[in-house]
């Protein structure tokens, strides 16, 4: 009896222990939400030819306007983020970075004020090496000065790229030094790193250290506007989930890169898959699209409150792939209140809609639906499926390359079962059925 009690206590301690120490700047308690220019607008600096689509202060002011007036802010999107190609080709006489004077005539301070006046936050971009990826001045040797410059401008987020580091062995030091430099400014600045992405070419990154210094971090290749890009990111994430999922939690998150919904390359089903899986992965929701002109279906999906609630769930645990069956993939994410989010992707790219039979008893974590669960389908459409018993079978229909997203709520929450279930998710026992 005493031994059993002790075991229960230890289990509880394991479950409650936080992933690892997170960067302590008060930010990223849930994944960041906002907009980032890169995937859609890239390095378009030709404002004569394309005044509305070039990297200029107008672009961010117009996106901020759209975010404030079209429901984005209310849905939780708050950061308006600049990527590469904003700076002038040279630093100023004091060695400070400066915005390109033609494209940012008002300067960055004024742009930050504008974005703040809309109730939003401004993100900026720099690089840990000698030059940015597009060849603009890098921050190597200037970390303290650049952090201070960004703080003086009123910047709220820094995306720190990893190109052109003189030696890859300096990457960790460079990212850590910039983290400390941001802290020293006294301004809370969200720190978005690409440290593991650049280290992976040489070595397995130390995620304990990364979590200690960054609010989110890119692991894998840039997203682009295509289904193969989304599946490539999902496959990489599933293959590395034992390593990267435990690193995520309040304060710091894995970043599978931007949401490309609302552009040209993904069908509506594929857009649902990206949205659903970014929620399961507790990913930052940084859209890269044109909010001034976006398809109403993409907009509705990006603003879907039930999907966003899964993404922002306060328990702060990243989900993982728990099964591959008959060209379906099942991904699960534990939520607060003993709930579970389940995504079922139809990875078959031929034929029509297929039925996936849900037997609550079939998948390991669903066993905690004992004796029954209340099942609600969130995507492709909201549908209350009602009480499901452990051994009853319901079918969900999933289009090719689409996803059904469900929320499963145990009807009675047995706290001991719930602890075991969280423990199961922590240690990924589900791998045994893959
Ligand atoms: C700087 O770091 C300290 C210690 O981790 C923390 O308490 C403080 O809030 C941080 N300040 C900022 C501005 O991030
Ligand atoms: C990081 O900061 C330390 C201490 O100031 C310094 O010795 C080191 O050279 C810096 N590394 C890089 C890559 O800037
Ligand atoms: C990883 O980083 C942590 C925290 O900085 C450190 O304590 C640990 O020794 C590092 N692990 C390895 C294998 O270098
Ligand atoms: C099941 O969940 C839905 C959605 O939260 C709710 O509206 C419904 O009342 C629940 N049904 C039962 C029987 O608890």
UniProtKB/TrEMBL annotation:
UniProt keyword list: Disulfide bond, Glycoprotein, Glycosidase, Hydrolase, Lipid metabolism, Lysosome, Signal
Name under which the protein is recorded: Alpha-galactosidase
InterPro entries: Aldolase_TIM, GH, Glyco_hydro_27, Glyco_hydro_27/36_CS, Glyco_hydro_b, Melibiase/NAGA_C
Single GO term (MF): alpha-galactosidase activity
Main localization (coarse): other
Annotated function: Catalyzes the hydrolysis of glycosphingolipids and participates in their degradation in the lysosome.
Gene Ontology biological process terms in this record: glycoside catabolic process; glycosphingolipid catabolic process; oligosaccharide metabolic process; podocyte development; renal filtration; renal tubule morphogenesis
GO cellular component, one term: membrane
Glycoprotein is among the record's keywords: yes
Residues of the signal peptide: 1-22
Nucleotide-binding keyword on record: no
Enzyme class label: hydrolase
Lineage top rank: taxon: Eukaryota
Organism: Scleropages formosus (Asian bonytongue)
Subcellular localization: Lysosome
Family: Belongs to the glycosyl hydrolase 27 family.
Stretches assigned to coiled coil: none
Catalysed reactions, as listed in the record: a globoside Gb3Cer + H2O = a beta-D-galactosyl-(1->4)-beta-D-glucosyl-(1<->1)-ceramide + D-galactose; a globoside Gb3Cer (d18:1(4E)) + H2O = a beta-D-Gal-(1->4)-beta-D-Glc-(1<->1)-Cer(d18:1(4E)) + D-galactose; Hydrolysis of terminal, non-reducing alpha-D-galactose residues in alpha-D-galactosides, including galactose oligosaccharides, galactomannans and galactolipids
SUBUNIT field: Homodimer.
UniProt domain Alpha galactosidase A C-terminal: residue ranges: 316-402
Any Pfam family the entry gives: Melibiase_2_C
EC code(s) of this entry: 3.2.1.-
């Amino acid at each position: 009896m005493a031994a059993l009690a002790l075991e229960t206590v230890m289990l509880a301690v394991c479950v409650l222990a936080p992933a690892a120490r997170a960067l302590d700047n008060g930010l990223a308690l849930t994944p960041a939400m906002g907009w980032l220019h890169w995937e859609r607008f890239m390095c378009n600096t030709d404002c004569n030819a394309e005044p509305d689509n070039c990297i200029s202060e107008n672009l961010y002011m117009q996106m901020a306007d759209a975010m404030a007036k079209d429901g984005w802010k209310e849905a939780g999107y708050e950061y308006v983020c600049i990527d590469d190609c904003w700076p002038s080709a040279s630093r100023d006489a004091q060695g400070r970075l400066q915005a390109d004077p033609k494209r940012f005539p008002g300067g960055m301070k004024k742009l930050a004020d504008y974005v703040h006046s809309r109730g939003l936050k401004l993100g900026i971009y720099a690089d840990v090496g000698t030059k940015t990826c597009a060849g603009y001045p890098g921050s190597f040797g200037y970390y303290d000065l650049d952090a201070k410059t960004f703080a003086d401008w009123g910047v709220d987020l820094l995306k720190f790229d990893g190109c052109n580091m003189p030696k890859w062995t300096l990457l960790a030091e460079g990212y850590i030094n910039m983290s400390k430099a941001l802290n020293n400014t006294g301004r809370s600045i969200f720190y978005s790193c690409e440290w593991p992405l650049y280290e992976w070419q040489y070595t397995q990154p130390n995620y304990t250290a990364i979590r200690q210094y960054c609010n989110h971090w890119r692991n894998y290749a840039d997203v682009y506007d295509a289904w193969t890009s989304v599946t490539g990111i999902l496959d990489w994430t599933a293959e590395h989930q034992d390593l990267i999922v435990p690193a995520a939690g309040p304060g710091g998150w894995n970043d599978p890169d931007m949401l490309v919904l609302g552009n040209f390359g993904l069908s509506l089903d594929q857009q649902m898959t990206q949205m659903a899986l970014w929620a399961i992965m507790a990913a930052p929701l940084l859209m890269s699209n044109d909010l001034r002109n976006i398809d109403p279906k993409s907009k509705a999906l990006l603003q879907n409150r039930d999907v966003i609630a899964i993404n922002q769930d306060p328990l702060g645990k990243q989900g993982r792939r728990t099964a591959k069956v008959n060209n379906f993939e099942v991904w699960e994410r534990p939520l607060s209140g003993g709930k579970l989010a389940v995504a079922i992707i139809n990875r078959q790219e031929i034929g029509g809609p297929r039925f996936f039979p849900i037997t609550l008893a079939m998948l390991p974590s669903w066993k905690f639906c004992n004796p029954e669960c209340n099942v609600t389908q969130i995507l492709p459409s909201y549908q209350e499926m009602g009480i499901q018993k452990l051994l009853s079978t319901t079918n969900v229909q999933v289009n090719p390359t689409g996803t059904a997203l469900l929320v499963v709520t145990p009807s009675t929450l047995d706290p001991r079962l719930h602890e075991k279930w969280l423990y199961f998710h922590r240690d990924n026992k589900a791998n045994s059925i893959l």
